[in-house]
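Reviewer comment 2.1 asked that we show a complete input and output for one of the modelled complexes. We chose the guanosine-5'-triphosphate case, as it is the one discussed in the main text.
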Amino acid sequence: MTPDQRDLDELVKRLLADPANSDHPMHYALSQLWLAHRELLNRIERITHVSDAYQSIAREREMSLAERFDKQLRQLEKVARISDRYQQMMRELNIALEEASTHDVLTSLANRRLLMERLKAETERAGRLQHDFCVAMVDIDHFKQVNDQHGHDTGDRVLIEIARVMQAEVREYDLCGRWGGEEFLILLPELDLASAQVVVERVRLGIRNLAIRQGTEALTITVSAGLAAHLPGESYSDTINRADAALLRAKQHGRDCLVLAS
Ligand SMILES: Nc1nc2c(ncn2[C@@H]2O[C@H](COP(=O)(O)OP(=O)(O)OP(=O)(O)O)[C@@H](O)[C@H]2O)c(=O)[nH]1
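Response of the prediction step:
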């Protein structure tokens, strides 16, 4: 509708609505004309709408086969890209979930669950292939004092640093894990007691040499450790218990040392 038509429309509406014109002899005729006019406009609008839809369908039909094929191909590519992104997201989520369920959040070391799985597998392998393996229990000395004197955040930093040294000092196929609060377990496959002792001593001295910065001072942290070689036929819990008993003796001997299990 043009602006002039709109003005005329408004004027007729006002004239018909004005009570002063209700008795005018042309009032009835004008109102009938007005209704007919509105009806006509509505019909034109509907026809235009249908015609637009029809033209768009006709345009689609006129599209060449190649164009339609291209369009469908583009749509398929889009769906494939979305699906690729979705699958990548799912893969990343799975990796993150796997990592969270098998690793300690603070130190990123193996958690107790992963340690137990590997201990079980190693015990079975040792039984099958007559391989040796050793277990070391490593516990921070007087860690409560570190927390009490320097705060929990510093305590956490100490745990992270110790984990880093452990990882650096063991071999690639050894597994370090956080067994409990300030207690760590090192699984040393295919090593006899004497060779495992060398590795665990290296870890112990590496931790001792850490010198963790705390304000102007450098904290010296020591650990005590107990080491046990898995005996043929024994369960991994028994091996851990013997390593734990050796650790207790290390604590009783004044800490900062490694004791071999009997
Ligand atoms: N900062 C921090 N502290 C922890 C965490 N887990 C356990 N601890 C602390 O570790 C300390 C362990 O204390 P204790 O069992 O008395 O052992 P300790 O002081 O190391 O003494 P010994 O083992 O006998 O040498 C407690 O103060 C716990 O709060 C942790 O994730 N972060």
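The chain has a mean pLDDT of 92. We note this here for comparison with the apo prediction described in Section 3.2.
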